[in-house]
Structures
1.
Amino acid sequence: MAAETETAAGGRGLLRSLVRSEQSRLAAAVLLAVAAVACQLVPYLMAYRVAVELVSEATPDGDALIRYAVIALVAIAAGTALMGGALAISHISAYRLLHRLRQRIAERLGVLPLGEVTRRGSGGVGKLAMEDVERIEVFIAHMLPDAVAALTVVAATTVWLFVIDWRLALAAVAVVPLAMLGMRWATRGSGAWVAQWHGAGMAMNQAVTEFLHGIKAVKVFNRQTDTVARATDAVRRYVDAETQWGRAFLPGGAAYFTVMAANAAVVVPVGLLLYRDGAVDLPTLLLFLLLSLGYTAPLTKLTGYGSQLRQVRFGTDEIAKLLDTPELPDTGRRLPLGQPAVELTDVSFAYHPDRDVLTGVSIKAEAGRVTAIVGPSGSGKTTVARLVSRFFDVSAGSVRVGGVDVREMAVDQLMDTVAVVFQDPFLFHDTVRANLTLGRPDLDDEAVQRAARAARCHDFILALPQGYDTVVGERGATLSGGERQRLSIARALLKDAPVVVLDEATASTDPENELWIQEAVANLAAGRTLLVIAHRLTTVRDADQIVVMSDGRVVETGRHDELLATGGTYAGLWADATTSARWSLGVSGDRSGAHA
């Protein structure tokens, strides 16, 4: 609850909470940084003392000059050591904070509705968790100690200059207000530029991630030109956003840096006039000339941090939004369940408030039977699967599993009760055995192999270089799509959930793998309630019940023969599917010369 309150104020509140959690270490880092920057002023003071000695004394004291030189060298060494210590402490704090923040992001992703996570895309979430979090390291480890130290030393130096001579001090600081006007010009509308740049960066990450994940399909279907063009276009938009921001900053920024570097052009003539009139002595003039060369450097550094801080703030705003996204409500109650039937009653749902995807949908999948949901693309069948798995909560109506509303039971109880086999199964960069036992890592080899045989994947696993100990590569890259699908079915068998949802498990497989997968699915269905989201109608013709959807509504329900006899939507879909199959076979025959 405290963390939620902290993030409610957006990125600023999140940054404050992060700093507070490490305030003792960061305070030590700031103090060391202030001392380090103060040490950098000592050589200027020693130069002033040397000038006084050379000008005021007829015979300069050689020992004093050596002493001043030694003090300057010691101050330089001490300043370097102190700054090193400050940065070491601030980096330790920063990495501790980054570790905790990434943990918070991961934990939040774990309790958010899965649909909300998929909506953001892996590229968008990756940018938040990696790139935007990494920018906070720059803020904590560098900007915070440097900025506080620079402000402290600039303030102290300004007071010192005015104590020595207020007229030369005015000359030294006169350029600062003028330079700030240039910076204000440079940063006008910067909020909009940062938003555009950040949005382009997230789009670029998403496009490149999608391209890399789909590289095999891109090559197989010879779509390199299109996909590379999309990724390139996203990169170009990011470059354009950054370039336009840079061009908008350039005139005012150039004016700022030019004026800030020109304070010597004010101090020198003013100082010479005062020296000519006897208003200041030579050592004082030399001191101001020395200080004027370095007085504005900390301010220039602070200004550079200001631009980075806007980027950090925008990124932390997005992180705060993620952390503030309402989690999936969880009652935590493990309730007694009846027979593992799945029932949707008058369900309506919308991904966006102005457009319903489902309207008044009622479906009952009987316990221990196979229920198939079919329909044209966009009919809402996949959304039904997502609601049963509680990727989202319904807008109206109810979804019940085992007679209990899925919103009433504990989330982990629902996950124990329902297993999902996705169209594009995800495998980790780990061994076959580790991927199979993801839900139940305590299973022995005999149970694993029994499930693999039932899922028709035991033989190809044994043919792998290290059998069940073979590492399958990132996202299962070393396996075919059909092999990955059969492994996911074996994983569902090992989970031993009474309800299984198959989301178009054979939609993108070849005929040989489709046969293996159908046999695996048949074994998976034994004694379980199976809800099949089907693209290929031939795979569900023997289902106990076929539910036909169109435009977000249930339009027909029945068995295959019954639906064909009615001559409705299903009959039309079946006619299209069988006509397509005959056309494909005819093409194949022509190419093989079978008709000759």
2.
Amino acid sequence: MACLNYYYGVLNLEPGSTQEDIKRAYRQLAQQWHPDKFSKQPEQLKEAREKFELIKEAYDNLIQLSSLDASSFSPKISVRPPSAEEHYSTGIAYLQAGKRKQAVESFTQAIRKRSGYLKAYQARAFTFEQLGLHGQARADFDKVAELKRAKTPEVNALNEADVAFQQGFTQLKMRKYGAAIESFTTVIGLNPNHIDAYRYRSQAYFRRGYDEQADADFKQMRDLEQQAGSKAPFFHRQSSRIWRCVHTLSRHTDVVSGVAIARDGKKLVTSSYDQTLRLWSLKTGGLLKTFSDHSKAIHCVAFSWDSKFIASGSADKTIKIWDVRTGALLRSFGNLIAGHTDTVTALAFSPNHQFLASASLDKTVRLWAVKSGKEIYALKEYAEPILALAMGWDGKTIAYGGKGSSISMRHTKTGKPIRSLPTDEQPNRAVAMSRQGFLLALASGADIVIWNRQYQKRLFKLKGHTEAISALAFSGDNQTLVSGSYDKTIKLWDITTGQLIDTLMGHQAAVCSVAYGLNGKIIASSSADNTAKIWQRG
């Protein structure tokens, strides 16, 4: 990564200065050192040109980088100009952030630093292609060919398999799946153990509808990863970390059926067959409040997205809405003549916290207006008791299933059908949808089935639990899936590779529910052993 602090120093600015500060400093220094001012001073003209170029380079980098999310970069303090390698790394980071024009500039600066930098020419050529600048791309590809003919040391570092892989990866991103398959096949021909070539060829096959070939490549990738002991995908991610139980919450007197983490990262709520809800501090594990009004066992609980409300569903056939700050019961949905007619099994708030979806053993899903308590619609087409319900992170889709042979997907607002996904002949006790993209995870007995819900494609199964899976939750970054099971364990899965990352053990009975904190460092679980646990990574 380019050394941003060096550039700030060039412009006489403090790190983190605003765009306006950067522009103001650039105007002042550019005026001071513009070469035209030294046209009659030959002895200073060379220095002015060098300083003017450096000032412009600093300005271009800081303006471009300031428009990106700071979390994408980790600048290092430096007292030297960035190297060619650092410019190249910056370009790669820009590509990952979708900033192609800035990537071109960074690759260009890398080439200026090192005239024979083949990898920079190669990357810039691919980027020009993505921008539709085919003339510039051809010129860079010609330069790559020239460097290869010259047999420079750079070529030795970038073998044919590397070049073919980069080309295939770019084609995959551009949705040129047939061309990508050919490129990755070339890579595999040159290097039969190239794990990432199998990974991304599998994706290309899947996009073209070649499911058998995709499955074969995915299996080969998994086999190679096991042989190599590798868990990392092509773009580096952090390896799995150690998770440990930091708090065991044991104030309930019966099965702890549900658990939910507030999006503010400060609170946790649990539901129990003892007919109470309890609010806890995530940091200390201390009990904050107890909510009590249900007349039978509580089976599920949910936090609103603004962390202000809690919803609970019970065997008493009602849903109750609670004020987190005061602990007051605000309203109750359902009664003897309206609402669900059997146990409420699952709940999900919409992102705008105006609506609440509920599922029940009465074979219906219902949508409620949170403020008024009015039932908006009831879906009654499912032929079996419904055990699982999830709402997409955009609030537009709900998915639900249970003891039937399918997962039903509906438009949240209207209840109109979107599609139905077939399932194995196993009870579907949990379903989860990823935050971005179109992944859907489904608990099918002791296995987890991953679907691409947009294309209605079944991707792969995750196997590892020995008894039925009861709960699923995606991490906020969509990289990890956590599952809870009747086998008393909690497992974490790398959703990119399908590999098992970690197994958390400590509950003495079936795990009933799991929740993943948005920061990725906290998991909460509840169990039939009458406890809930808070797990922390690191």
3.
Amino acid sequence: MDIPAEFENKIDELTIEKREYQLAAVQEIMEALPDNSILLNYPYGTGKTIIALLSFLAVKIQKPNAKFIFTSAREAAGLRCRQALEMGKKFGYIESLGYLYDPTGKGLSLRQKSKMYEASTVIFSPITSLMNDYFEIKTKLRINILENIDICVIDEATDILARDMSGFRKSKYFEGLFKLKEKGNNFPILALSGTRDAQRASAILRLLGKDTLMMQRLDLSPYETITKIHKIRREDYIKIDQQISAQITKPIEIIQKGLGVKLSRLEIIKMSYSGALERLERMNQFPGKLGKYQVKDEETKNELSLAFRRLFKFSHARLLLLESTPGEFLKYIEKDDNKEIFKNVIELGKELVSYRVDLPKYENPEEKVTRALVHPKVYTAIDIIHEHLFRGATVLIFTRYLALGNYLHRLLNNLGFPEVKYLSGQSTEDNRRLTLKSFDEGNVNVLIFTPLGGRGLNLEAADVVIHLDITTNIDDMIQRRERARGCIEYVLVLEETSEEGKIKDYKKLIGQGDEDEEEEKEQEQEQEQEHGDEVLPPEE
């Protein structure tokens, strides 16, 4: 296919950032369709969703009856699909794409859903909703809602891989989609990714099939992001983290005994977060399957259920300790149904209450406000923000937790910091749009984001980025970094806690891993030198 002449006329009036960059991508896509699937591996924040929507429009002009799917498996899949829908409306050409339907809508009968799918030219749907609807309608009504699809866009294609490529099977929903494609519904897939990991890119290509081409552009020059790892030492946090880590060991040993000794600690913790407990509780035939592992009998099931329940509680408590507010952590471990398993931690947790810090007011730093229950990362971030705002910088802050984002937002306002805004998954589209416009125009000094609030955005207006947490999926950290590239990046790490392992992985990905090795060698040499300089006692 080629881009039709009419296409240029239709988008002539549109305001599109990086217009030439994106139109060149659309041209390449059109040349490859419909014979090939495509992995569009472009940098984060460069408008891959816009490229996908423009490709829809170009195909639609040539084939008026064309049908499209936009799907995602992100934790924010519903939000991502709504954002894509809103983006189409914003650019004003969404009418040309036809009727829009979000299958997550409530209150529709199966037959009504089927009619809506049939009428839709573009289906915006999370992969779970899409495939559940497909199988239900196919089974009960004998109607194939995915017949005659011209392009299927998979947003954030790294999610089709087994969770972080750590040995888990890929999502059953994507397996279903790929099988469907193989059985004659031969629609091309346009997968969107921004991974710099060649192994991941190759794995995505394999999953998409042998007819898949890779379009890759990852050159981010002349942008340069300077990363500073900011280590914070707090003895009370170290003690609590170590105590929780020690107590995690026993349930892990029980799970290894029940499922297989080769299971790593990381795999088991990920299983606890991916619904292992719920699947165990539903299990009533033995031997039963838990993913790729076998549960031999009822007794093993009960032991595993208890172990996974305890493991999840300990893992969640540790995340709250390292990445949320002290109040949220204390509230969790002191819940009635948690008190017993956290009895060794509750007393240590009270040290967090007694710790008090002095925070500077924005206009008059000498005037201090004394507060308790302030997370170490929060008062460290406030110092960094204060330093950079005075030189006229704009600051972007990422956190995984609503509670921490809310708290920091209120605290900065109370301390008199100017123009502080907060966006989360709970923010309305209007609020998001107005806030981001103000940030781009330099009218917002500090912008706080949770992952759902910051997904799919170009944030190059930021001069400084602060990570209050290190995400379990390091790809998310890379996304944050490249959406706001060309900045100073601070990663806040609690020293001698379980965060230090994660930060080593991140540093390797951004090319700072060699510095750690050199630092360790220098420390070893210094120790050897110290021992060599010791004066030996005289021989008797």
